Amino acid sequence: xxxxxxxxxxxxxxxxxxxxxxxxxFKKLMQLQTNSNCQSLxxxxxxxxxxxxxxxxxxxxxxxxxxxxxxxxRKELKAIGININQLTRGFHISKxxxxxxxxxxxxxxxxxxxxxxxxxxxxxxxxxxxxxxQK
Length: 135
Known about the structure:
Helix content: 55-70%
Shape: elongated
Largest sheet: none
Strand content: under 5%
């Protein structure tokens, strides 16, 4: 079974161009390719020749710690939320006033944990905003 022909034949890459570069230029091009949105070295060179924009991705390793902490806080908040939903369900199912009071106390304890996590979250966000919004 053969493949469908491309609709726009003018956009096909059918003419090879062979070019030699020095080792240092090759390393620069390879680094540009690995840190950009380009999939191949040929795509990098085509975009340079056509003066198109190349998106260059830069990873700031100083943010690894805060991002891991944010992820752990998100996970803990999700677990606390699930627990609060379970306790709320138990509250609505219970028939005795003593059981309802027990569930209310437990939910209040969980909300105190949420408050602590939100405070740490706001502290991290303020530190990140101070770093990113500096002039």
